[in-house]
Amino acid sequence: xxxxxxxxxALYGGVVPEIASRRHMEAVVRVTEQALKDAEMDKHxxxxxxxxxxxxxxxxxxxGANFGKSLAFAMNKPSFRCTTSGDTLRLLxxxxxx
Length: 98
What we know:
98 residues; 2 strands; 8% strand; two-stranded parallel sheet
C-alpha cells in the first residue's frame, strides 16, 4: 500500500512539515485498512504492531508511532518501534520464533 503526498507538497516547492503531519493523520486509518485488505487479513490476524520512529519529520513520525501504539493497545497486542530495516528483520524473526 502506497500513499503519496507529492502533489500536495509540489504546490509549495517542497515538503511542508505541518501539512505532512496533517496528511498523515488523514491517511493512517485508510492506509492501515487497505494494507490489511491487500494482505487478505483483518485486525484479528495481527500478532503485533510496529511503527517507525526514524528517519523522518517528527510530526509525521509521531502520528504513525502514536497510531501504532494505540492500535496495539486497543487490540491487546505488543507494539514495537523500528528505526532501521534491521529492526524490521528482528521483528520478523521474533514472529517466526513465537
